[in-house]
Amino acid sequence: MTPEGKSLLNIFILGFGFMFMFTAFQTCGNVEQTVIKSYNSTEFHGSGYTSMSIIYGVFSASNLIAPSVVAVVGPQLSMFFSGLLYSGYIAMFIHPFTWSFYTASVLVGIGAAVLWTAQGNLLTINSTDSTIGRNSGIFWALLQFSLFFGNLYIYFAWHGKVTITDKDRQTVFISLTVISLVGSFLFFLIQRPEPEVLPAEVPESPVPAENSDSSSVAVAPRGLWSQALEAFKKALQLSVTKEMLLLSISIGYTGLELTFYSGVYGTCVGAMTQFGEDAKGLIGLSGIFIGIGEILGGGVFGMLNKDNKFGRNPVVLLGLVTHYLAFYLIFLNIASDAPMAPEEGTHMQAFMTPSVQVALLCSFLLGLGDSCFNTQLLSIVGYIFHDDSAPAFAVFKFVQSITAAVAFFYSNYLLLHWQLLIMVGVGFLGTLTFFAAEWQVTSRRQDSDYDSI
């Protein structure tokens, strides 16, 4: 197999591993608030929104040390052990306690930081400047199949159910735990890319060959600590570069809308009593339509980025327009108190007769718009910071996760229309700053082409 073929195979394996893991985790996040409302136990007093806020808060803080972990342990083992923490969080729902719920939330937050930093590292070292856009799209499309399969299962398992019983909960979460474990073990199939496929040696390579005092794979503890410290310092340096500061607002926006489509919107749909007895099952169907939008966007926009003829700005602008349309329709269709409605749901009505078709259309638009932003952000971060991919993606996830944590926290208290208004404002600013970053990249590339003549 050619070096390029091996690298492409690695991208597919990476995508399938994440697909299995997040089939379990994203389905868990989509239904957990609904499950908790239906769980009748004096031993449990948890909130799904609070749990997600803890996860993303810890996730954000842990990104400061994640590059050091990946540098020392290597991306494969980093992703495997992080995947085990995800599986533990999902398994906790089989018989939840308040203490185990929030403890698992902290642990999966740490695991998430390491997992996504390692993912960004592997995506970049298996890509070149000409393939980073394509590979980002392939990875994103495979990852978002997780929304399709997990939520399809939820739709058929909970179709017509008004209350989720203990047996329903246990069956779902045992299945999801096994699925997440499969994803973790797939990471062992990823092979180290051959050096000639890379335009330059990548400093954060998992094999610390650059230590001149070591002639073998084994590295002295001092070398490991030095490597970890350098990765940490590099992450701090990258966080204050002009390019990263410009991108941070659009990255932060993806954290806000991640919270909305992955945890809040499904809860809102399930709380709409005017959708009838199938409202709980519609949580799964909504997730499927989000997944269809994500898959379509990841595939199409990843391929458009292959030669980068039109740049990234048109795709990001399409994402903003798509999200604005979704937000407007949600505002008209979903009751304002739906995010905080009790188990029996909300009897309030928004500004139009509630429509299941409009709700599912909004799900599709949320997924499509999200893929527009994320594929382009993965592409531009991987392009600008190719030689420092692990620290760069750690900063990426730091910003994204801290805004997601804030959003999950305020989801406990803010009515739906206020949540939508926040996303409208941040999305607009994030699009403008992304444009500025992309224009800088384009200008730099043109200057480089001119100098090479």
TrEMBL record:
GO terms for cellular component: membrane. The keyword Coiled coil does not apply. It is found in: Membrane. Its main location: membrane. It comes from the Eukaryota. It is a multi-pass membrane protein. The chain crosses the membrane at residues 7-26, 46-65, 77-95, 101-125, 137-158, 170-190, 244-262, 282-304, 316-336, 356-385, 392-410, 416-437. Keywords: Glycoprotein, Membrane, Transmembrane, Transmembrane helix. Belongs to the unc-93 family. This is UNC93-like protein MFSD11. It comes from Anguilla anguilla (European freshwater eel).
